Amino acid sequence: MRPLRRLALVSGLTLLGATQLAAQVPDSLWISTRGDVRPDRETYVLLSGVLGGLAGYRGIERRLLQLGHRVVIIDPYLMSIDSADVSFDAIARRVNTLLDVRGVRAARLVGHAHGGGVALRVASNWPARVSELFLLDVGAMEGNHSPVFSSSMRLATLVTRMPGGKRFVRGRIAAGIRENTGKSDWLDDTAVKAYTDVPLDNISGVVGMALRLGDSVEPESLAVVVSRVKVPVTMVLGALRCAASPGPQELAALEPLGARVRMVKIDGTCHFPHEEAPEMVISYLTHTR
Predict the structure, then answer these.
(1) CB–CB of 276/270 below 8 Å?
(2) Within a 13 Å sphere around the CA of 187, how many CA atoms are in the beta-carbon half?
(3) CATH of the domain at 112
(4) What is the dihedral angle through the alpha carbons of 70, 195, 145, 233, rounded to the nearest 10 degrees?
(5) pLDDT at site 24
(6) Burial of 283 by CB count in 10 Å (0-12 exposed, 13-18 middle, 19+ buried)?
(7) Disulfide-capable partner of 107 in 43, 69, 142, 171 (CB 3.0 to 4.6 Å)?
(8) Among 147, 267, 120, which Cα is nearest to 210's?
(9) What's the pLDDT at 215?
(10) For residue 104, is it within any domain?
């Protein structure tokens, strides 16, 4: 982005109140803890990507709770909406602090999309916190740069303030999700609202964070991060290719883990396997497949 255009966008976001959002986003929107701690059951920690939030994991959560497990869902991006540092490393530190306060240790850690980049750093930096790592349609990401927000999306703050603007942006987001799914029957009007209401209600902060994601810098190389991962890693990928699918470099970056990493693909799905084929994903998370 050209410097002058970038400056104009940032100035506009500031005038629209992007710096006030810390007090406007209650933690109930970015963390959910359900289920009892039981010695014979697992704790699952589910980290969302830039899009999806708590809503994206509710189906998986219901099934895990039925099986008697404890489930912690965290939207690490909404949690970091007012944070200056939004590198994977920084967001992982915040997630680790949350888990420490809740006494979470040896959890099965699940990350979708960019949430997988956060999950990888948690597993690398605090190995006692994680017993297994599951990456949903993502490999090992080098940095927290998101292609989700195009230049037009960065103007969404202004668009949503126009008549019909929210409906327009919601439609754009829904269309982008559909283009990255193999099975879109789950994406009904209720699901679209669940995925979009929170970001649309906090659009200035979301767009401001998108700008910071583009500038984020990781303190360590990906190779160093991967070298410290000692737990089993399972990549659960959509078998279909779409724009949001992980690239070959993301997958190859985990090869140094050798036998500790495995890759499985779910037929007919793409970037949202936990929504498109939840029972299949559950079978991998619970070791019944």
Answers:
(1) yes
(2) 22
(3) 3.40.50.1820
(4) 30
(5) 61
(6) middle
(7) 43
(8) 147
(9) 86
(10) yes
DSSP 251: H
The C-alpha atoms of residue 222 and residue 218 are separated, in whole angstroms, by 9
Q: Is residue 212 part of a domain?
A: no
Establish if 64 belongs to a structural domain.
yes
Judged on CB neighbours under 10 Å (0-12, 13-18, 19+), 89 is buried
Q: How far is CA 141 from CA 13, 115, 138, in A?
A: 28, 10, 8
Mean pLDDT of the chain: 87
Count Cα atoms within 13 angstroms, Cβ side, for 279. 0
Predicted pLDDT of residue 158 = 66
- The whole-number pLDDT of residue 74 equals 98
E-strand stretches of the chain: 31-34, 43-47, 70-74, 107-112, 130-136, 233-238, 261-266
244 within a domain of the structure (yes/no): yes
Span of 41-55, 191-205, 254-268 with lowest mean pLDDT: 191-205
How much is the pLDDT for 251? 97
Question: What does 166-177 look like in DSSP terms, one character per residue?
Answer: HHHHHHHHHHHH
The answer, yes or no, to whether residue 194 has pLDDT greater than 80, is yes
Pick the closest to residue 236 from 184, 285, 176 (CA basis).
285
Question: Could you tell me the two tokens for 217?
Answer: 């810098």
Domain range spanning residue 120?
A: 26-144+218-285
Contact in structure between 232 and 263 (CB atoms under 8 Å): no
DSSP string, 74-89: E-HHHHTTT-S--SHH
pLDDT for residue 38? 82
- The total number of structural domains in the chain stands at 1
Residue type, 252: A
Q: What is the pTM of this model?
A: 0.88
- What average pLDDT does range 123-139 have in this prediction? 98
- The model's confidence at residue 23, banded by pLDDT at 50, 70 and 90, is very low
